[in-house]
Amino acid sequence: TESLTVAELAKKLYREPSEIIKKLFLLGVAATINQQLDKDAIELIASEYGVEVEEKVIVDQTDLETYFTEDREEDLEVRPPVVTIMGHVDHGKTTTLDSIRHTKVTAGEAGGITQHIGAYQVKVGGKKITFLDTPGHEAFTTMRARGAQVTDITVLVVAADDGVKPQTVEAINHAKAAGVPIIVAVNKIDKPTANPERVMQELTEYNLVPEDWGGDTIFVPISALTGEGIDNLLEMILLVSEVEELKANPNRRALGSVIEARLDKGRGPVATLLVQNGTLRIGDPIVVGHTYGRVRAMVNDLGRRVKEAGPSTPVEITGLNDVPEAGDRFVVFEDEKTARQVGEARKQQAVQAHRNETARVSLDTLFEQM
Ligand code: GDP
Ligand code: MG
């Protein structure tokens, strides 16, 4: 519940606090300037000035989860890790992602046309790893702000010739706040000016201490440019993944998050979804954020049409009635009718929230003009 002090309310109403105190007194409430007022008192005073207090409708992104029941332990199976690459600008995030994709995807899957859908999967010794391809920090923060936690492991790329920089620290903070384990990739070791020891030294300040120095952080020296150390990095990701015991139940209706979405001229709303639990199939009735529909077509990261997608798999889908947003949650329903009802309700909720926001803004503008 919202509460304001007399002074804060006075400011919002563009009145003197003494005037508010007087009004309160006449209403039988003895108040001081720093007194907290409850919702009823605020409404009462506001109505005296002809201002209606509108309750902010918070569109809860996570409430879709309430349609999703818990899994039984015995139904859970090991799933691939979902990895986000973070680090300071120019330290080699994109090159690392490209290097992994090229050594693993195109070589292993001859003929496959890699397509940008915001995420991709590689296979290492029969085990899969999913990489989020979207600009690290932004994706991470937008998603987390919308209640989606999609990352299992963060690879922190630090250039060995540059060391720890502001966005390196930012990335560490994001990962730590989310409770996501960090693997440090010390990049650009091919450069003559590379100084990996310095990177390790600097990171100890942030509690990222290599195992050799008595800590528990994995450091992998790499050159994203030459490909050196990339295999080792992938091995380490699988190692951490095993320790984390990442599991999901493939034998149920899917739930997950939107990685990215856009409006395609020919195909309509297109969204890349990351399946986080269950299996997504063509024809599934689905609610995605404040949109809904039926999964019409699914394309994987290699541009191939697929009929289903299991846990930790990214797929691009069509069939939604509107464009969702990155970080939106999705849930598959048993029947189309329920999906439509829930979808419509959520859409109304979003429209209403937007209206309230607009109403409040115009009210503020009105006051400012007075
Ligand atoms: P991002 O901003 O973190 O995505 O960094 P980029 O991947 O775009 O890389 C920035 C620059 O560093 C580019 O010119 C890359 O070619 C270069 N670069 C990336 N990795 C390496 C590496 O391992 N060795 C060398 N020598 N250059 C690299
Ligand atoms: Mg980049």
Automatic annotation (TrEMBL):
Give positions of region: G-domain.
81-229
Location(s), subcellular: Cytoplasm
Summarize where GTP binds, as residue positions: 87-94, 133-137, 187-190
Q: Which gene encodes it?
A: infB
Tr-type G domain sequence ranges: 78-247
Similarity comment: Belongs to the TRAFAC class translation factor GTPase superfamily. Classic translation factor GTPase family. IF-2 subfamily.
Record-given protein name: Translation initiation factor IF-2
Q: What does this protein do?
A: One of the essential components for the initiation of protein synthesis. Protects formylmethionyl-tRNA from spontaneous hydrolysis and promotes its binding to the 30S ribosomal subunits. Also involved in the hydrolysis of GTP during the formation of the 70S ribosomal complex.
Full-length numbering of the shown residues: 266 to 635 of 842
Which source organism?
Heyndrickxia faecalis
